[in-house]
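Quick one, T. Sequence first:
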Amino acid sequence: MTDATNDEDLIAAARQAASQSYSPYSRFPVGAALRFADGTVVTGTNIENASYGLALCAETVAVAKAMAEGRRGGLEAVAVTGPRGKGGDQPITPCGRCRQVLNELAQLGGTDPEILCVGPGEVRRTRLSTLLPDAFGPASLD
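Structure tokens:
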């Protein structure tokens, strides 16, 4: 956990997390950094498994760490980064599962975090609600 306050620091934290990736099968290290309202940043990296379906995405790991630390809201921004140049020049976005996992944490705090999708030469900014419209979450069960 670190205290990064701007987007550049958030992206740097995601890149640092990617450097800790365990991705021997895909060779596609991904890092994620979640920034909360109090300035705290929680990071995660992808963790693969020989049984491919058991792999964990960086965003899911970061959310699990945040929840394990007792965080239940205040999610303001997320940066997701992958290897530069691998897979094309497009910024990477959270997969569908990760969008849903991020949504759970966001809905607990009533936020719609900005998602910084980081590519080799560009940062695409969007909102979680744009990536996951009409999301199912805690409010759906009330």
